[in-house]
């Protein structure tokens, strides 16, 4: 029988209960099914959480029940030579990374920890969990080379909004048997199924990391340089541009308008590629290097959004566009709004922190994506904003009517009673 | 293998359906005569044949939309087809279904080096993309063996892999967007020249959906910069166990080669006799390990892999000295299927994936099955990712050999699942493995997959008879069994 804990429990001090009437904390798959079944029966929707580190994402929920997955934790099978790890969905990322590091491996998609962005202390607040990172499909700067969380998600077991136990995928790295439901679940923010166990692909940790820094790079030059680096055969695994405006926020003392490129691999390879990159990129500007340790620290900071953390009162947007459009888009946004910005993913990911707009800048940002001719593509997600703002504007990019209808039918298929995180992604759904 | 019973009412309306299709796709775009339809009766899984009701070859997305809208309204089934190279019968026609051929969508629409992507029509052959961009220093990574012929639209439908997917991923990891048409004729776009989905990842769902959810009419693929160089190692071992241990040791050493292929003795001998690749013949197993990257990296890793191989009792180690030799090493592996075709009248190619640690056991049990069924087997194996391709040798002209080969194949796939693997690593379920889905998934698992199908195609008109062993009506799947006035969990505490 699963544990039911009343309001304001002392067992879960790490995040607010948001007035939830009850909390179910299942300890195994059968208890998870019963918890969802119970919610269906009494028609009381569930907010699905594990560590609770992502409760600031998506639309704010005020639901009568909380489904706490945090007891479904622990690594259940890890075969380094198979490149596969199976764990309870709520296993903390930190625990997984420690175990992987012991075998010289890693989560190649660099799951971010955004607690600092939300101003939550990382020592006492809930930990990012593997299931949470997969459910939100969150990836770090290595996304451009190694793929997103969804690209490493091999299989799962869980309970759908129908209160039924089901599984999909497998426990091997190559599998095309049946629909790829892992892709459907990745980025569904807990609206389709509550995960109990997940299997992921893991990869060897690079022996050496090095970072090439170009300083005092103007925005127009940055687009060109990022494109040039990523079109080179040097296997760049991180490519960010931080313009002067934001480096002035004293996050990186002494740095000014920097473009950083990461190289990873065996030592002789990294040394060779670093030399080539400096020759190819560094002729017109001052270039510098970060060694292994400094590189690891720098890219962790990039991964965890240190650049836009601590900008109190600003709404933080994640905007994905064609890499060549990143700077132009950021310029347009900063022209119309009080916004600071920087680029990740070689220019394809714009992080913009906006102040002083009633809608957090939503209309201007989404208009900028569509562009002057209305044909531009991409999407903007509000990552950090007040609950009122996240309640009043679409947090995720609005879809065309046929796609919105399709998404609605999928939600209805997996969660016909709207029991799992209803309203997390779309109002009333 | 039974396909859904043809609907006599649809067959009776054939003339009317043809007329309607001709009004949508004028000229020679509708293939009516039996002789011409014969070309479409099968795909790469030639054991199954069926003449389609009619073939339509549209050339614009509007025509595709009109064909699907018409078929959707009339309740006529549709089977989409690319180049017809599916090894699982994914494009097997239906007697009461329209075969929708996408061959006329054969143009590369845009190459965008600035954003490192290309926008192509689905009928463009896989290899043609790399050919179009290689002079600029780029390539499209997934490289299925059929890449000269197979099309990118089919690759999306099957989530195709290839010998280099260990390092570079499958189709799903290498496409950015698609335009597609739903069964009701609605044209939608998923993704574009940017990363990640804005809502549910339907691009990920479409990839590998085997033509059951929608018809792809345009694909945006990622282009990667070509590695500076590639070198391959040819390594022979006295036992398959030694070669399997060597593969494990390479991965454990933190090396992910661009490709890591294994062949067993029968496959080595067949390939060598066919293309004279220079393979050692006195070994039980052969590995081809390819490393790519800058010369400094490749030379370093070649040295490390050689050392690992020696520790694992390799009896022959040959690093390629130049590009010609590297290609020669691959020529035997790439010709393994036709080479086996030379030593046996027919062969049946299987495609399970297993945890690599179980390889020795699986190969041992494969030998026992081979003896029990009285059919020889040659093994080629994407060793890096555990994807087995046992080739079962048989003669279709001998009584009951087809049945025995199929039964042997089914046993092999059950074995893959039993040791913790899966039914198919890259060829798809199609009709071939449809009835084995129950060995991996229970009824509830399959019902969840079919509900996804219902969200896209509520009447089940797109490629029915593939992937799922049983057809369920969507209304029946949608029911949630909560009985009126009675809670399903009466023992639970309430408050």
Q: How much is the radius of gyration of chain A in Å?
A: 22 Å
Instruction: Give the low-pLDDT segments of chain A.
Output: 1-17
The percentage of residues in β strands of chain B lies in 15-25%
- How would you state the average pLDDT of chain A, rounded? 91
In brief:
The complex is a heterodimer of chains A (429) and B (495). Chain A is an alpha+beta fold and 429 residues long. Chain A has helices spanning 29-42, 93-102, 130-135, 143-146, 181-185, 219-231, 244-247, 267-281, 292-303, 326-336, 362-370, 387-392, 401-414, and strands at 3-5, 22-25, 46-49, 65-68, 75-79, 84-88, 105-106, 153-160, 165-169, 193-201, 203-204, 208-214, 236-242, 258-265, 287-290, 315-320, 338-344, 349-355, 379-384.
Structure characterization notes:
The complex is a heterodimer of chains A (429) and B (495). Helices cover 29% and strands 24% of the residues of chain A. Chain A has helices at residues 29-42, 93-102, 130-135, 143-146, 181-185, 219-231, 244-247, 267-281, 292-303, 326-336, 362-370, 387-392, 401-414, and strands spanning 3-5, 22-25, 46-49, 65-68, 75-79, 84-88, 105-106, 153-160, 165-169, 193-201, 203-204, 208-214, 236-242, 258-265, 287-290, 315-320, 338-344, 349-355, 379-384. The longest helix of chain A has 15 residues, at 267-281. Chain A is globular. Chain B is of the alpha+beta class and 495 residues long. Chain B has helices at residues 8-12, 14-24, 34-37, 61-74, 126-133, 152-158, 165-168, 202-206, 240-252, 265-275, 295-311, 323-334, 336-343, 359-373, 401-418, 437-440, 443-456, 474-478, and strands at 30-31, 54-56, 77-81, 97-101, 108-112, 117-120, 138-139, 175-181, 187-191, 215-222, 224-225, 229-237, 259-264, 285-293, 316-319, 346-349, 377-382, 387-394. The longest helix of chain B has 18 residues, at 401-418. The chains are: A alpha+beta (429), B alpha+beta (495). Chains A and B meet through helix 1, strand 9, helix 5, strand 11 and helix 6 of A and strand 9, helix 8, helix 9, helix 11 and helix 17 of B.
């Amino acid at each position: 029988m699963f544990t039911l804990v009343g309001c304001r429990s002392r067992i879960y001090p790490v995040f607010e209960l948001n007035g939830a009437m009850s909390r179910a904390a299942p300890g195994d798959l059968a208890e998870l099914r019963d918890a969802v079944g119970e919610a269906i029966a009494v028609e009381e929707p569930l907010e699905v959480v594990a560590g609770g580190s992502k409760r600031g994402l998506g639309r704010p929920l005020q639901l009568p029940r909380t489904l706490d997955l945090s007891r479904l934790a622990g690594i259940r099978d890890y075969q380094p030579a198979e490149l596969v790890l199976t764990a309870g969905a709520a296993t903390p990322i930190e625990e997984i990374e420690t175990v992987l590091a012991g075998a010289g491996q890693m989560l190649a998609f660099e799951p971010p920890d955004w607690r600092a962005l939300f101003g939550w202390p990382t020592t006492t607040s809930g930990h990012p969990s593997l299931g949470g990172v997969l459910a939100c499909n969150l990836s770090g700067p290595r996304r451009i080379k190694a793929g997103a969380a969804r690209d490493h998600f091999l299989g799962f077991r869980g309970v759908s909004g129908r209160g039924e136990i089901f599984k999909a995928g497998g426990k091997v790295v190559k599998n095309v048997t049946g629909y790829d439901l892992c892709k459907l679940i990745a980025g569904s923010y807990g609206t389709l199924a509550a995960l109990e166990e997940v299997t992921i692909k893991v990869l060897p940790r690079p022996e050496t990391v090095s970072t090439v820094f170009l300083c005092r790079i103007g925005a127009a030059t940055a687009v060109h340089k990022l494109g040039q680096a990523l079109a080179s055969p040097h296997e760049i695994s991180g490519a960010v541009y931080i313009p002067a405006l934001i480096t002035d926020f004293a996050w990186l003392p002494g740095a000014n308008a920097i473009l950083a490129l990461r190289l990873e691999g065996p030592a002789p390879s990294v040394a060779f590629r670093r030399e080539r990159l400096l020759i190819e990129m560094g002729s017109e500007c001052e270039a510098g290097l970060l060694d292994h340790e400094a590189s690891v620290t720098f890219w962790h900071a990039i991964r965890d959004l240190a650049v836009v953390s601590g900008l109190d009162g600003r709404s933080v947007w994640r905007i994905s566009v064609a890499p060549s459009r990143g700077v132009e888009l950021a310029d347009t946004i900063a022209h119309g709004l009080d916004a600071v910005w920087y680029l990740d993913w070689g220019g394809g990911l714009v992080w913009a922190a906006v102040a002083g707009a009633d809608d957090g800048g939503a209309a201007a940002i989404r208009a900028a994506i569509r562009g002057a001719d209305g044909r531009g593509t991409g999407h903007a997600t509000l990552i950090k904003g007040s609950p009122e703002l996240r309640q009043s504007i679409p947090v995720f990019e609005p879809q065309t009517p046929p796609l919105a209808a399709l998404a609605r039918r999928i939600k209805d298929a997996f969660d016909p009673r709207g029991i799992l995180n209803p309203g997390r992604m779309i109002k009333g759904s | 293998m039974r396909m859904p019973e043809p609907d006599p009412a649809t067959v009776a309306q054939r003339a009317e359906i043809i007329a309607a299709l001709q009004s949508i796709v004028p000229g020679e775009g509708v293939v009516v005569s039996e002789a011409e339809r014969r070309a479409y009766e099968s795909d790469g899984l030639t054991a199954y044949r069926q003449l389609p009701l009619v073939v339509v070859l549209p050339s614009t997305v509007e025509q595709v939309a009109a064909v699907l809208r018409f078929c959707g309204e009339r309740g006529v089934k549709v089977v989409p087809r690319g180049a017809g190279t599916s090894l699982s019968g994914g494009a097997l026609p239906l007697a009461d279904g329209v075969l929708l051929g996408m061959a006329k969508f054969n143009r590369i629409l845009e190459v965008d080096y600035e954003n490192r992507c290309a926008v192509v029509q689905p009928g463009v052959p896989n290899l043609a993309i790399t050919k179009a961009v290689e002079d600029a220093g780029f390539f499209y990574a997934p490289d299925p063996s059929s890449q000269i012929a197979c099309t990118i639209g089919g690759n999306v439908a099957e989530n195709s892999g290839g010998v280099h997917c260990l390092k570079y991923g499958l189709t799903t990891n290498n496409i950015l967007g698609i335009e597609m048409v739903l069964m009701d004729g609605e044209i939608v776009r998923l993704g574009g020249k940017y990363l990640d989905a804005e809502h549910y990842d339907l691009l990920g769902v479409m990839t590998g959906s085997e033509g059951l959810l929608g018809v792809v009419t345009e694909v945006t693929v990622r282009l990667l910069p070509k590695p500076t160089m590639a070198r391959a190692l040819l390594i022979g071992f006295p036992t398959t166990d030694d070669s399997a241990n060597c593969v494990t040791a390479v991965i454990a050493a933190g090396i992910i080669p661009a490709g890591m292929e294994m062949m067993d003795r029968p496959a080595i001998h067949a390939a060598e006799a066919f293309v004279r690749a220079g393979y050692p013949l006195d070994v039980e197993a052969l590995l081809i390990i390819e490393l790519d990257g800058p010369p400094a990296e490749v030379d370093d890793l070649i040295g490390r892999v050689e050392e690992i191989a020696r520790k694992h009792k390799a009896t022959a180690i040959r690093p390629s000295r130049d590009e010609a030799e590297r290609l020669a090493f691959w020529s035997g592996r790439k010709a393994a299927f036709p080479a086996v075709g030379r030593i046996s009248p027919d062969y049946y190619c299987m495609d399970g994936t297993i945890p690599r640690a179980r390889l020795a056991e699986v190969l041992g049990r494969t030998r026992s099955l081979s003896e029990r069924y009285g059919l020889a087997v040659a093994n080629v194996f994407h060793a890096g990712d555990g994807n087995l391709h046992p080739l079962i040798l048989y003669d279709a002209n001998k009584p009951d050999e087809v049945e025995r080969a199929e039964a042997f194949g089914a046993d092999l796939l059950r074995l893959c699942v039993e040791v913790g693997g899966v039914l198919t690593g890259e060829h798809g379920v199609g009709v071939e493995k449809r009835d084995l889905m129950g060995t991996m998934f229970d009824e509830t698992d399959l019902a969840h997959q079919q509900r996804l199908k219902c969200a896209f195609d509520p009447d089940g008109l797109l490629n029915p008879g593939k992937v799922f062993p049983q057809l369920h009506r969507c209304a029946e799947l949608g029911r949630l069994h909560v009985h009126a006035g009675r809670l399903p969990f009466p023992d639970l505490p309430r408050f």
